[in-house]
Amino acid sequence: MIKFVRSVGLALSGIAFAIRTQRHMQIHIIAAVIVIALGSFLSLDTVDWCLLAIAIGMVVSAELVNTAIEQAVDLASPERHPLAKSAKDVAAGAVLAAALVAIAIGAFVLGPPLWRLIG
Questions:
Q1: Which residue, among 67, 60, 61, 59, has the nearest Cα to 99 in the 3D structure?
Q2: How far is Cα 23 from Cα 67, in angstroms, rounded to an integer?
């Protein structure tokens, strides 16, 4: 049990590092807070909350993996190298793909109740 608690602590430390040091992670967290607040305001149903939770989790997870890859590449290759650039670009592309899917999910889930509210 002590090893598990220590592992959770280390994982939380990694998340805190990413939030503290990565601008895009900060943007994703702010977007997640806005989506959660909007979802609460719109009284979404359980399925909609699950879709939003999956989308948020997907983007945050992708950003965490991207940060880990960037840190590892910087350690392994402090000088510029085409393979290091490719690794970082592909990891960033994964975050972009996740974010675009999350935006689409957000539009499908939040769009209809927002239109009903506005119209």
A1: 59
A2: 11
pTM of the model: 0.92
Q: Tens digits of per-residue pLDDT, 96-115? A: 999 999 999 999 999 999 99
Closest CA to 58 of 105, 14, 26, 17: 105
Contact yes or no for 52/109 (Cβ under 8 A): yes
Round to whole Å and give the CA distance between 71 and 69.
Answer: 5
pLDDT in tens, 13-58: 999 999 999 999 999 999 999 999 999 999 999 999 999 999 999 9
CATH level 3 topology of 2-118: Helix Hairpins (1.10.287)
Tell me the residue type at 28.
H
Nearest to 106 by CA among 49, 27, 26, 25: 49
Query: Which residues have a catalytic role annotated?
Result: 63
Q: How far apart are CA 56 and CA 36, in angstroms?
A: 10
Q: Residue 23 corresponds to which tokens in the numbers above?
A: 């601008």
Domain boundaries, the chain: 2-118
